[in-house]
Structures are given as structure tokens and as C-alpha cells.
Amino acid sequence: MTEGFTECDLTCSSPTPSVETLNAVNHLKLEPEQPIFSVLTGGMKEQERGEAHIAVSHPTTCGATSPTAASDTESGVFSVESELCAEHDFELDWFCGTEQKLICSRCATAGPCREHSVAPLARRVTAVRNQLVDVCEKIQLQALRIEKFIKQTLDAKEQKLQASASRAREQVLAQVSAAREALEEEEQRLLEQVQREAERVEQCLLTQRAHWNNALTSLSQTRSHLVHTLTHAADAQLVTSIQEISERAEEAEGVGDPCDTNQLNLNPACTDSKLLRGLWATALLLGPNAYGSPLLKFDERTVSPLLSLSEDLRTLTFISKKPRQAPPYDPARFDSWPNALGSLSMSSGTHCWVVDVGESGAFKVGVCYANLERKGSGNEARLGHNSQSWVLSHYDLDYSFCHAGKKVPLTLIKRPQRIGLLLDWLSQTLLFYEPDSGTVLYSVTHPFSAPLLPAFAVTDRSITILHR
């Protein structure tokens, strides 16, 4: 593992090694996995065993230290100046692992550290150096792995990112371009169709206007002639003019009475487009306003005694047992059916809201006129069973659209956890959809004639009005 190290100069303050020492180092066999300092140590042991320690001078005062120029006999690297034991005046050439301090040989064998974990200083230095070499090698290997990761993985990821982002942009632009092109073509077609229909109705109006203006002129002339005959003709002349008067009257009756027809109105089918309706509905159902106004909540005054309303006025829960104490009387409250109305009146614009139906097995969601009957157990107050309400109903496993007592069965691929409603007043369209997929469950077009309120009913568990 030594090939990963870079060259460096080692400067020592000790004398230059002898020729024999250098020869011994040159003849060492380096193993790839052997720490570098261990190799140097092993090669120089034989050379250093015959060398004597350098004599040191002792201080005159106990505890004082004096410098020496000793070499590290096991590590092969010259050490810094040594100190003497303050108690025994011996060189501090041992290390106490228990107290983590330098000691002398007397301290290690007969002194206070005799029962501690001790080792010769040179051996300890060698171990520390080898450990340091291992740490440096690990750091170098880690650095190599990081460098490899940066060059191979991150660079490749960056190239892949650029390619993926470029493809994604092209895909978005292509899809938007296709949608824009189709929408522009559909817009042009519909506008031309509306223009043709408007020109047709305009021509009909001009024709009718010319016809009835001529008829009005003819009637005015006939009337003027008859009035003149009545006021100016002599009796004998008047009697002999009976035939002419009859002809004039018959001519006037032949003009007929004007009547309005559908030919004089713009045909709404001229704006019918599945593509436009689909794009419009998708933009509303999946857009930022799909959950509607955060002000929409349940109107507390309308909540049936069979239901409980949460403190935030957004969750209705069915009460299996009718409460003993009925709520205060309120003309707006449903007293027999488990119904409740929303707090938002709708008579213009476009409105969306989403209801979390969860695991409820029986509920209704829809709209109704504000004047829907609230009292009694008859169909007049039962959602979907009168001409005042339009609801999507779920009971057990059946889903259906209900209005005026008629049911339209619905086939759903999966049981929805949430149901969204969209009311567009301009097109008089009420649409039920599944928000998670944007799937339209049912839509109805009706000439709504009065403001509408969100309508709800639940006889199993609870339902909640959701807000983003």
C-alpha cells in the first residue's frame, strides 16, 4: 500500500548514518502490505544492536532535566531531546499506558508503575508510527475513492442529468406544442363555426325583419284604406263595397301572427367540443384551484340532528343513535334526513370543491337550490329525490347520479377516497370527478335558474370538506 505515498524529504538533527546502515536499508525487502516504518525498523535492528547508548550528564537538582541526543533504536528515526526521571535520574525511555506518560525503567520495574501497562518507549513509538502510517494510508485510500467517485460517478451523473433534462424539456415543449396546436386549431374551428351560426341567425333575423316590416306596411295600408272607406264612403257606396272589404280583411288575416322560433337563436351546439371540454375540465380539476375556496364549510344551521359537526365546521359524522336532546329549532335545519348544506352560494363563475368520503359506505354529495325543503321526511327534503337537487349517491357498493327521483347507475373502476365537484355557471355544467386521477365520474348540463348551495348527506361514518 506504500505506492500511494508521495515523496518527501526527512530532515534529522542527528549525525549522518554510517555506510553499513545505509547498505542494510538498501537490502531490505519491502512487502506491499507492510507499514513503511516497520520495514525500516526491522532492517536497522541488527545494525543498531551493536551500538552503545550515548552518555548523558545528570542534573545536580532532583527533578531537573537535561537534553540528550538519543536515537530511536526501534523506529529508525532520531527522536527529540530526552528527559530524565525526576525520581530516579534515569532516562525516560519507557511509556506507561495506564497513566499515559513517560517513565524510566526503574518506575516500570520497581516504581509506582510496576503493575501498570508499560512498554519500552521505542516500541511504543514504533506502534504509534505504524498506526499513523495506517491512518494515512486509509485517508489516502478514502481520498482515492472520493476522487474516483467524483470523476466516474458524479461526472457521469452530470452528463446523464444534462441529457435527461434536455429530453425532458423537449418532451414538455413537444407536448405543450401539440396541445397548443390542437387547441389553436380547435379554437379556429369553433370560432368559424360560431361565426357561421351567428351569420345564419343574423340572416334569419334580417329576413324576418324585412318580412314583418313589409307585412306591417301592408297591414297599415289596408287599415288606412278601410278606415277611409268607413269614414268617407256614402251609405250606398259602403254597401256596394262589401266584396272589396272582405278581400281586404282576408288579405290582412293572411299575414298571420309573428312567433319566435329556435331558428332565431344561436345554436349552443356550435361551441360543443370534446377536446375543448376535456382540456378545460382538466385545467380546472388538476389546477391550483381544484379544492376551491377555503371559506367553504358546512353551514351549522342546516346540519341535521342525526349528524355531528366538527369544531372546524369541515367534518360531518353520522350519529347511529338519535340524540335525546334535539338542537334548537332553526328553519334552515333539516329535521328528518341526515343532510347538511355548504356555506357558499353559487350563482356565477366556476366553483370547485373536494370531499373526503374515506371509508363511508353511504353518502351523497352534490348541489341544491337554496329553497330546498328542510322539514319533514318526504321526498321534498330528500337529496336527489326532487327537482331541486342534483347529487352523486353511494350506498353499499352502488354509485349513481340522482335527480328528481331518477337514478343513473355509475360504473367505477375503483372506490374513490375523495370526490371532487365542479360547477360552471356559464355553461350550466355540474361535473363529478375523482381528484387523484382526474377521472370524470359523471357530468350533467342543466339550466339552473337560482343560486345553488353545496349539498351533503351521510349515514355511515363521516365525510370531510378538504382544503389545500
Automatic annotation (TrEMBL):
Annotated B box-type domain residues: 80-121
GO MF entries: zinc ion binding
Record-annotated B30.2/SPRY domain positions: 275-468
Keywords associated with the record: Coiled coil, Metal-binding, Zinc, Zinc-finger
Protein name: B-box and SPRY domain containing
Stretches of the chain forming a coiled coil according to its record: 151-204
Superkingdom of source: Eukaryota
Entries under Gene3D superfamilies matching the protein: 2.60.120.920, Classic Zinc Finger (3.30.160.60)
Organism, scientific name: Cyprinodon variegatus
CDD domains with a match to the protein in the record: SPRY_BSPRY (cd12904)
A Pfam match: SPRY
